[in-house]
Amino acid sequence: MATVLERVRALIERLSPAPICDDCIAEKLDLSVRQHANHKSRELAGAPGFERRKDICSICCGDKIVIRRTSR
Ligand SMILES: [Zn+2]
């Protein structure tokens, strides 16, 4: 069974190179706690190949902190 972090990573990679915000990650993965998505997204932002910054979310079109897979 995949961990939340693995599911978040898979979702971001599937959307790549489009960015996604924490709220949409929580909604897409059906996470009960929004903070959970925030925490995982922060964790991934420290990993190589991921970028977290303020931008337009590709799902909700909101101008917020998003994360995306950078192309390599
Ligand atoms: Zn969004």
Question: How many structural units, i.e. domains?
Answer: 1
Oligomer: single chain
Instruction: Give me the Rg, rounded.
Output: 11 Å
User: Helicity range of the residues?
Assistant: 40-55%
Rounded to the nearest angstrom, the distance between the terminal CA atoms is 28 Å
The proportion of residues in beta strands is 15-25%
Low-confidence stretches: none
Structure description:
By secondary structure, this protein is of the alpha+beta class. The chain has a single domain (about 5-70), classed as Orthogonal Bundle (Arc Repressor Mutant, subunit A). About 45% of the residues lie in helices and about 20% in strands. The protein has 3 helices and 3 strands. The chain has helices at about 5-15, 20-30, 35-45, and strands spanning about 20, 50-55, 65-70. Strands 1-3-2 form a 3-stranded antiparallel β-sheet. Helix 1 (about 5-15) packs across helix 3 and helix 2 (about 20-30) crosses helix 3. It is globular, with a radius of gyration of 11 Å. The protein starts with a helix and ends with a strand. The model has no long low-confidence stretch (mean pLDDT about 90). Bound molecules: zinc ion (ZN). Zinc ion (ZN) binds near residues 20, 57, 59 and 60.
